[in-house]
Amino acid sequence: MMLLPMPFHSLLLFIVWLLLNNSVSPGHIVLASFFAITIPWLVTGMRDDHPKILRPWLAIRYVLMVMKDIITANVEVALLIIGPAKKLKPGFVAIPLDVTTDLGITILASTVSLTPGTVSAEVSKDKAWLFVHALHLENEAELIESVKQRYERPIKEIFGC
Amino acid sequence: MPFYLEIIISVSLLTGGVFLLVGSYGLVRLPDIYMRLHSPTKASTLGITGVLIASMFFQSHLKGFLSIQELLITLFLFITAPVAANMIAKTALHHSNKPAEKTQNQALMDTIRDRESPPSNSIK
Amino acid sequence: MLNITIIAVAICICIALILNLWRLLKGPTISDRILALDTMYINAIALILLYGIHARSSLYFEAAVLIAMLGFVSTAALCKYLLRGDIIE
């Protein structure tokens, strides 16, 4: 633990360095290990506490589900953009948040921006509301329910908050 | 280059190009800034993914080993696109840009700008 | 076949860039202009990668990474400046 204060970040640095150089030669592996050990050691004093990932398998499933949703939602949005603009019914929606940590809210807001026809615009000061803009808003309650069920519940379970 | 590889690269390039075009078309066509935000964050991100997948296959063929470094740009864009969209939405709200007239819940805009909780009567 | 596809996709991306430019010049608000710039750099990445495929070279990947990073930072800095009047608080 003393050697690697941030194991996940170290692994990420290692992989990203090898990817950037697109090689697995011994020299690059040594250099990547050097960065993976030194950089977390230098910056560990600066970071805030983040909640730990409690259920890694659920996190992987969540990422896969979001990827699938991104593709379907993109096709949907593309059709909406090409289709008649007069029919679109945009609107602002306030979604009550159950996730309390900053990281959880960030992930939820990013997923909401990437997936269905919504862009997250703002979070209220007390971090209890997420304001989103929907491109085509038909049923407000249904949208809120789908965001809460589909995205917020897994995030809550992953971080256990 | 084998024919099947050419087909894969062509198809993903074309998908990417079409999505990029649709994203930019939406940017010109949609009536207000909040709606315009949707087209680049979604369509363009998928478009660039298509082009990057094509590039990945091509470079792997060119070099003779699996080259997945293009995934790095995809990952980076998937992380940054929502953040950029969020910041632009904040800017638009801060400048009180007018939304299209048919936008629902326009009364919420002031509370969003001030980052307050919405008034309780607007919640169903 | 690949050469024809590359030309077709290049035309698509160039039209997309022209549409972005139109939005950049026309406005009407400053947020629209930032959004147009943001979309423009995504299209530029696609164009550079496409040229990399056309020229059968992997050098252009580095340029694409740099554009991706600088593009995001510039969008964030512009928005931050307009929101707060200051980039680093």
UniProtKB/TrEMBL annotation, chain A:
What keywords appear on the UniProt entry? Cell membrane, Membrane, Transmembrane, Transmembrane helix
Task: Give me the Gene Ontology terms describing cellular component.
Answer: plasma membrane
Tell me where in or outside the cell this protein is found: Cell membrane
Q: Its membrane topology, per UniProt?
A: Multi-pass membrane protein
Q: Which GO terms describe its molecular function?
A: monoatomic cation transmembrane transporter activity
Record's superkingdom?
Bacteria
Query: What family classification does the UniProt entry report for this protein?
Result: Belongs to the CPA3 antiporters (TC 2.A.63) subunit E family.
Q: What is this protein called?
A: Na+/H+ antiporter subunit E
Naturally occurring in which organism (per UniProt): Marinomonas hwangdonensis
UniProtKB/TrEMBL annotation, chain B:
What InterPro entries would the database entry show? PhaG_MnhG_YufB (IPR005133)
Region (Disordered): which ranges? 95-124
UniProt xrefs under Pfam families:
PhaG_MnhG_YufB
Transmembrane residue ranges:
6-28, 71-89
Q: What are the record keywords, sorted? A: Membrane, Transmembrane, Transmembrane helix
Return the PANTHER family for the record.
ANTIPORTER SUBUNIT MNHG2-RELATED (PTHR34703:SF1)
The protein's name: Na+/H+ antiporter subunit G
Provenance organism: Marinomonas hwangdonensis
Automatic annotation (TrEMBL), chain C:
The record gives the membrane topology as: Multi-pass membrane protein
Q: Which Pfam families match?
A: MrpF_PhaF
Indicate the principal place this protein occupies in or around the cell: membrane
InterPro entries in alphabetical order: MrpF/PhaF-like (IPR007208)
* One Gene Ontology MF term: sodium:proton antiporter activity
* Location of the protein in the cell: Cell membrane
Does the entry feature the keyword Membrane, yes or no?
yes
Keyword entries, A-Z: Antiport, Cell membrane, Ion transport, Membrane, Transmembrane, Transmembrane helix, Transport
Q: Which domain of life is it from?
A: Bacteria
Q: Which GO terms describe its cellular component?
A: plasma membrane
Q: Transmembrane segments in this chain: where?
A: 6-22, 34-53, 59-83
| UniProt record similarity statement | Belongs to the CPA3 antiporters (TC 2.A.63) subunit F family.
Q: What name is this protein filed under? A: K+/H+ antiporter subunit F
